[in-house]
Amino acid sequence: MISLSGLTKRYGTVTAVDDLSLEIKSGRVTGFLGPNGAGKSTTMRMILGLDHPTSGKALVNGKTYEELKHPLREVGALLDAKALHPGRTARSHLLSMARSNGIAGRRVEEVLEVVGLTSVAKRRVGLFSLGMGQRLGIAGALLGDPGVLIFDEPVNGLDPDGVRWVRGIARSLADEGRTVFLSSHLMSEMQQTADQVVVIGKGKLIADMPILELIERSALGTVRVRVPDPRGREELASRIASAGFTADRSDDEVLVVRGATSEQVGDLAHEAAIRLHELRMQEPSLEEAYMELTSGSLEYGTARMTNRTDGLDA
Ligand SMILES: Nc1ncnc2c1ncn2[C@@H]1O[C@H](COP(=O)(O)OP(=O)(O)OP(=O)(O)O)[C@@H](O)[C@H]1O
């Protein structure tokens, strides 16, 4: 388990991580989401003892990284898959990692097998594709057979096969009872991988909930109602407000209602005999729900988020 309490990191005037408190539990995949610059990598680096918190704590199994006797046996990480010595073979890279951490050499063969790199173990990692590098990084994370795994953007740049593979291994590691914490800035990616999502923006916690709950919440969505008669529109808007929902004018004839179901809006219109030309539930995609959650927390403003539904990275 990973526990963060009041975790804060400042770089000069920039607060990269701002008072984060949460628990990342074992036996499930927790997705760590947030737009670029939200503070995900900094948080992960602090969990791994690579950065020191300005205040607060990041604990792995109740201890700070420095306090762990055999860190690699408790927590494995994939941070930057490209940070490998290009002249080394995959096997020698893992062997040197194993040696310096008191891990038996035969474990190297096991992890090579797990990540499917046995047949290319003698190849220099400088010749590896991104996907192979990612597999090797994950092999390194698994070397000490740790109960906690931290992967920073593990699917970034991978082809669909690679993405599927990472998803599969994350799932099977969680099913074995491990804590799997992986970051992404793509909600759509997490939808298919994570059980729980932690969303941050500008270093602050925005949401920490089961992914199904986030989907359900977003499924509440909005109701689009078209009222041709202006007076009817006014009347319906005021009835919607009195009922505790919010109604915004979208274009000439349309009200966009939040917090209500289409049945509720239809009933409110019916009670006042207001003629409708359209009554439609609009279910936002999970991506939209995420953008709504994180809007206002982008490092460089919100303008580039408009009209995007497939992620935030382009
Ligand atoms: N070593 C550093 N010195 C100064 N500022 C830093 C440093 N590392 C990170 N930051 C700043 O901290 C903030 C959070 O960065 P971080 O890399 O943790 O975000 P992120 O969510 O991982 O983003 P990305 O998805 O782009 O990797 C950013 O404003 C970044 O510029």
What does this structure look like?
- With 314 residues, the protein is an alpha/beta fold.
- A six-stranded mixed beta sheet has the order 5-6-7-3-8-9, with helices on both faces. A four-stranded antiparallel beta sheet has the order 11-12-10-13, covered by helices on one side.
- The structure holds adenosine-5'-triphosphate (ATP).
Share of helix, binned = 25-40%
Order of helix and strand elements from N to C terminus: EEEHEHEHHHEHEHEEHEHEEHEH
How many domains make up the 3D coordinates? 2
Report the β-strand fraction as a percent range: 25-35%
Distance between the amino and carboxyl termini: 33 Å
What spatial form do the alpha-carbon principal axes imply? elongated
Low-confidence stretches: 299-314
Report the CATH superfamily of the largest domain: P-loop containing nucleotide triphosphate hydrolases
Total beta strand runs: 13
CATH topology of the largest domain: Rossmann fold
GO molecular function: ATP binding; ATP hydrolysis activity
Family: Belongs to the ABC transporter superfamily.
Domain ABC transporter: 2-227
InterPro entries: AAA+_ATPase, ABC_transporter-like_ATP-bd, P-loop_NTPase
